[in-house]
Amino acid sequence: MARSDPQPELQQMLSRREFGPALNLANNIVSKHPRDASAWFSLARAAFGLGRLRQADEAVDRTLRLGSASHEVQLLRAIVDHRLGRSSAAIDRLRMLVSKRAPNATDAVLALAEVLHRANRRDELQALVAEGGDWTEDPRAAIFTARVSLHTDRAGTIARLEELARSDRPALVRRIAGFDAVRLLDADGEYRRAFDLALHLHATTGAPFDVDGMIADAEQQLALVRRGTRWFEPRAPAVQGVALVVGMPRSGTTLLEQMLDRHPAISGIGEYDGVNTMGTAVLGQGVWPRELSMLDARMAASMQADYLAGAAVTRRASAQWSFDKSLHTWRWLPAVAAVLPGAACLRIERDARDTAISIFLSNFHPQAVGWTRSLESIRRVISAERALAPAALRALGIPHEDIRYEELVDRPREHMERILARLGLPMDEAVLAPEANARTVLTLSHEHVRRSINRSSIGRWKNYEFAFGPEWG
Q1: Has residue 76 been placed in a domain?
Q2: Is 289 left (phi over 0), alpha (psi -120 to 50) or beta?
Q3: Which residue, 7, 23, 195, 267, could crosslink 316 as a Cys pair with Cβ 3.0–4.6 Å?
Q4: Model confidence over 57-80: pLDDT tens digits?
């Protein structure tokens, strides 16, 4: 008896934003029907919904190569391009959709507004808003109208953003508008108001997250690395020119990347999801983490090839090193040692309270990084990383350097010389001027890194001392 068509079920999953199950089903379909453009596009949508940008990039590219170039595919292609730092290509594609009055022209204009905002092309954003059109009737348009009015009416803009955040608009609109307001309130010294709004946003727009499971996995790894030696041999050949950050969000990872990316031999590749994809693949083999010695060598080599191919997408052709700013690496260090032996890790750490309040006041993906929704869950994750990462780097024999954010800010030359020496590279004065980096920064630090190295974020937690109990010690 023939099995029913899985496509309707897949589309229902996507409409319900059940991206994990949708990704699994889409992967199953394309493995059996590799020329099914619709399934590849569904895979791209699911991967994007989970924040797996490289996987979405590959899937939407496959969709286009199979001849499917609908306006929906073109829009996702542009959005993924932007999120991967290819903002100029995204802008061109979005303008094309708008000019052709595609059925999704409103979504295209809104995406264009976001790209212009992130790329710091303020004049173009202002012109887009001033031009108006049907798109301004969309609930999301209020976010960009506010971003433009900020320069002439700051107090009124904050009030409108906060009103949006507490309205009955769609959750995504409320979340974006609200965290924009949180950032502005914090900058204006309205700390209690900023904190209360962030608390409201996490409660009303967040998503369930298995923090206990995340901590349990870290504790299982910690029990193994505390033996002091690696319990497996590398399962793939050594790699060259691969460096990865190890650290929490908002701990100085973007500053570090912007500094290193200024070196002619190093290319920052952003928050590449290759390590997370690789770790998930290792997990799927049933060997994580105790039985990594049983990981099939051919499978490990294939995982390594996939990682390197994805990293090459945004790596400058002239660079000898790629610097991967994935914030998931600390959770997958045994997989790094097994699949990417020879990779160098740069572990960065910042005052836990500064890290925590910066995370809590920021708009992280509510599903992929759902542990950011409360200070208590943030504290637990920071504690887990600080227990696991240093011990794992030592026990696994991963070449690494430890960096303290506050010291990097105070003595940037000293730390850059040490880090570059670890990579076998000479010092270059350009790394001391990260604000001159022309790359589009898509992380939550995109505005801060446009300024020269400074101490403005150090001790920020003291503005929110009321939120920290003795457990932060």
Answers
A1: no
A2: alpha
A3: 267
A4: 999 999 999 999 999 999 999 999
Cα distance between residue 433 and residue 451, in whole Å: 9
Range of the domain at 35: 1-69
Question: Residue 79 pairs with which residues in a beta bridge?
Answer: none
Nearest to 241 by CA among 259, 220, 263: 263
With tokens 């040692």, the residue in question is: 337
Domain with residue 371: its CATH number is: 3.40.50.300
CA angle 82/455/419 to nearest 5° reads: 70
Q: For the sheet containing 242-246, what is the strand order?
A: 266-268, 321-324, 242-246, 344-349, 400-404
Cα distances (Å, whole numbers) of residue 367 to 4, 76, 206, 442:
30, 19, 7, 18
Between strands 242-246 and 344-349, the pairing is parallel
pLDDT bucket at 302, cuts 50 / 70 / 90: very high
CA dist 364 → 46, 51, 176, 202 (Å): 18, 10, 10, 10
The answer as to whether 31 is a domain residue is yes
Q: Residue 111: which region, alpha, beta or left (left: phi > 0; alpha: psi -120 to 50)? A: alpha
Q: Is 210:368 a contact under the CB 8 Å cutoff?
A: no
Other CB atoms within 10 A of residue 206 CB: 17
Cα of 233 vs its chain's centroid, Å: 30
Task: With respect to residue 120, please indicate whether it lies within any of the assigned structural domains.
Answer: no
